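Model the whole thing, not chain by chain.
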Amino acid sequence: MAGNTFGTIFRLTTFGESHGVAIGGVIDGCPAGLKIDLEAVQRDLDRRKPGQSSIVTQRKESDLVEFYSGVFEGTTTGTPIGFAIHNTNQKSKDYSHIKDSYRPSHADYVYDQKYGLRDYRGGGRSSARETASRVVAGSIAKQFLSGLSFNAYVSQVGDIALDKNYQDLKLEVTETNPVRCPDPDTADRMIEFIKAVRKEGDTVGGVISCVIGNVPVGLGEPVFDKLHAQLGKAMLSVNAVKGFEWHKQWDGHLFQGSF
Amino acid sequence: MAGNTFGTIFRLTTFGESHGVAIGGVIDGCPAGLKIDLEAVQRDLDRRKPGQSSIVTQRKESDLVEFYSGVFEGTTTGTPIGFAIHNTNQKSKDYSHIKDSYRPSHADYVYDQKYGLRDYRGGGRSSARETASRVVAGSIAKQFLSGLSFNAYVSQVGDIALDKNYQDLKLEVTETNPVRCPDPDTADRMIEFIKAVRKEGDTVGGVISCVIGNVPVGLGEPVFDKLHAQLGKAMLSVNAVKGFEWHKQWDGHLFQGSF
Amino acid sequence: MAGNTFGTIFRLTTFGESHGVAIGGVIDGCPAGLKIDLEAVQRDLDRRKPGQSSIVTQRKESDLVEFYSGVFEGTTTGTPIGFAIHNTNQKSKDYSHIKDSYRPSHADYVYDQKYGLRDYRGGGRSSARETASRVVAGSIAKQFLSGLSFNAYVSQVGDIALDKNYQDLKLEVTETNPVRCPDPDTADRMIEFIKAVRKEGDTVGGVISCVIGNVPVGLGEPVFDKLHAQLGKAMLSVNAVKGFEWHKQWDGHLFQGSF
Amino acid sequence: MAGNTFGTIFRLTTFGESHGVAIGGVIDGCPAGLKIDLEAVQRDLDRRKPGQSSIVTQRKESDLVEFYSGVFEGTTTGTPIGFAIHNTNQKSKDYSHIKDSYRPSHADYVYDQKYGLRDYRGGGRSSARETASRVVAGSIAKQFLSGLSFNAYVSQVGDIALDKNYQDLKLEVTETNPVRCPDPDTADRMIEFIKAVRKEGDTVGGVISCVIGNVPVGLGEPVFDKLHAQLGKAMLSVNAVKGFEWHKQWDGHLFQGSF
C-alpha cells in the first residue's frame, strides 16, 4: 500500500531516511538452502557508494550492511533476512534555515504536501540513499540466480552514445573506468564531457543498458506482471529515471533506463 | 501472484481467452456513491474495437459489456463491479492444423513452455483482446477522476513524428482521423505511410503520448510505487509495448509508450 | 484492500449481490493441467442450495454456474477461471417499504453507514448467497487437492452435541440425513429440536466440524500465515460464524466453526 | 507470500530468530503526524517479557527496542518505521547435541521438513519471541487508535473460569496480579492452580478475553476481510493459540482466544 515493498515471491520491504538512525529492509521469500556470500553483498554496496571518483557526486556515504536474521552458518534458512545500514553522518548541525526551502527537482515539496511534514535534514525518505537497500536485496537475488548473467553499463552520457551493439562490446571492461562504459574510447569522451559539465556547475543525464543472459522461457507472469513490466516498474521507481525500454533477442534480454 | 490483478485500492482482476466463452473482470475498491454512465463505458469499448478503419487490423470484435454487480440505480455501491464481454465468434472451426505451430512474435511458445498446454484456437489469454477488460476499468476510473484530464494521441508512426509540443496541439481533433493524431497534416502523412506498409504485407510501430492534466500533488506512493512507475508497469504490460517515458511539467504530466 | 479477495497462490476474487444480475468470481493461480470435473462443481453447489429440506430456510436459490475461461478441453490452462451464477429471482417488486428498515442481526445498517447507500432489495453483498462463489472455488481446490480428504459434518445443534470422537464416527453417512450429522441417533434428535425451534419462529446455532486427512507436513506459511490461521480467517468470514477451533492429531486435522 | 507480513493499510513485516543477532520489523502505512510516545512502546514490551513472576517461564529476555526510521522530532512522518530488538543471549554454547532432536509440540520438525534445515540453537523463527515485534507494532497502532479502548485479561486457566460478564468486572485491576485476571479471588485460585501444575513439571492452558470499546461502525472490510476474521487470523497465528470466538455487544466487542 504505502509503497515500500517490491516483489511477491521474493519480496523486499525497505525503511530509512538519509539522516535517520539507519536504513535497511526485510527480504521475505528468499529460498532456503542458498549458500550465501555476504562479503559479495558488501562489495556490491561499495560499488554503489557515491564519491568514488572525481566525476560523480562527492557526497560521502559509508555503507556497512549488518545482517540480523535469515542466514545460519552461511546458508539461508527460508526465514526473512533482516538487515540494516547505520547512517554515520547524522551530524547535529542546524538545519532550521532549510526547513522551509524546497530544493528544485527534489521531492521535498511533494512530501510536505502529502504528509504534512517531513524530515527536513536532507532528502529523508526520498533520498537516493534508499537504493542501498535495493542493492543488498539485488545482490542476494543475483546469487540465487547464478545461472543467469547480468551486465549493466553506461551506454550514453548527454549526446555521447555507444554506437556498438552489446554483442560487439567487451562487457568485462565495464568496471575498469569510472564512468562504467565498456568501450574505452567512448568512456574517455564521456568522462571529458562530464568534467566540462561539472565545471559549469551542472549535471547531465544518460542511458544505462543491462544485458541479462540465460533468461528461462516463461519467467514472469502473464498479463499485468510480465517480466519486462515488472522490471520497468522497478527501474522507473529509482530516483531520476525517466524512461525504460526493452528488447528481446535470442541470446539475451536487453533493458535500458534513461535518466 | 498469477499476474491477472492490477492496482491496490482500485483493483482490477481480469479473466478470459480470445476464443473462450467470455472475457471480463472484477473491479474491487471503486468508491461508493459514484454516479456512473455505463453507456460511456460502452463508447470507450467501441473506440478500442479493431476493424474501425482501413488502416488497422480487419479482425472483427463486437464487444458488448454486461455489468453484473456493484452498481445500483446508476450509482456505485462500494461493492465489487463484476462484468463480462461475451465472445461472439467462437466458431467451431478446425484448429488442429495450428495446434503445434507457433506464430512468430507471439506468446504461443512461451505459454506452452510455461503451462504445458494452451488454448490453441487463437492468442488465448495472450491475445490483445484482453485489453478490452482494461478499457472497462479505465473508463470507470476516468469517471471517478473527473477532475483530471486525459488526452492520449499517436505522436509517431515509423519515422513520422509530431514535431510539436502538446501545448501547441489541438488535442480535441485527435478523434477526427483514423490514426488519432491531433495534427491533421501529420495524420495524413501517417495514414499514407501505413497504407504503403500494409500493401507490402507488413506492420509498423509508433509512439502514443498521453497528457494528464490537474494531477494532484502527492498522488501515488513513494519509493517503489511512484505514480510514473505504476503507470510504466501498466503500459509496459500491454501487448507490443516496448518502452515508456515520462516528463513532468507545471501544467500536466506527459507519458509516452512506444510499440 | 476492499475485502473481496482470498488467498495468495490460489486466489479467489468474488462479486455479486443477492438481487443483482449475477454473482461470481475469478480464480487466479489454479495450476495448469488439472483434469477438471465441472459437473462435480455443480453438485457441490447443489449441496449448498437452501430449501432442500423442511428443517432449513425455504428460500429458493437455483444456482447454475457458468464457466467463462481458464478451462480448455476439460483441463485447466493456468489462466484465470472466470465464472458467474445468474440470479433468477430478481423480481421487479416494490422494495421501497424496506428501503429504510434495517433487519436486526444483519449488516444492512453497517453497509449504509460505511458506504452511504446500499442495494436495499435484500442482503445485497452481505447476503449469505455470496458463499456460492466460495463453493465453486472450494470445489475446484478440492479436486486439485485430491490426495487429501475433507469430511465436514454438523457436530452440535443447540445443546445437542455429538459425544463421539471423529475416529469413532462413520463419516460416510453424513449425507444421508438433512442435518448432516454422521451419527443417525444424534441426527434424529437434532432434527426434532430444529423442528421445535422452527415452530416457535426461532432459529438455533450449532457447530460444524471438519476432518482433513493426509495434510502434508509444512503446508502453510510460518508466523502470520499459519495454515490454521488462514483457515480460521476463512471460516470466521462466513456469515454467522462466531468461533473457530483447531486440533492437530497424528491421523488428521480437526477444525471446528461455531455459529 | 512467505508469511511474515500482516495487514494492508497499516502493515507489519517482521524478521528474526530467537538466537540470531536481532529480531525486528518494518511498519508501513502508519499515518503521518501522529505524536508518538516511544517509551510507552517500551513499557508494553516490558509487559510481554517472560520471567516477570514465579508463575511463568523463567526464561530471561531483555527486549530493548531501537527505532531506525519513520519518526522525526517525536512525530511519525508517514514513512516506514523500522525497528530492531537485539538478542542479548546469543551465547556461543554447543548446541550440536540438540541439532537432530525435535522438541515435542514445537515446530522444529516441521521447519526441517519444509526448508531442509533450521537454526537449531532454539526455536529460531518459530520461537514465541517473535511476538515481541508484534507488541511494538500493536503498541503504536494502539496510540493511533486512541479513541478506542482495549482491555485484555485472562478469563480462564484450566477449568478455573471467570463467571462474570466483562461489564461486571473492574478491568483496571487486571495488572495488579501476575496472572492478569481482573477478579482478585479468581486470580488467587488461578495462581494456586498454576503453582500446583508447575510443581508437577507440567503446564496448563487457558482463555484470554479482550474487550474493545468504541469500535466505529463499518470498521473492517466486507466478505473475506471482516474485522473479526482478521482479528481471528491474527490471534490464531500466535504460538499455542487453539481457538477464537467473538461476540458483538452494544457497548463493545468481546474477542476471546484459547490456548
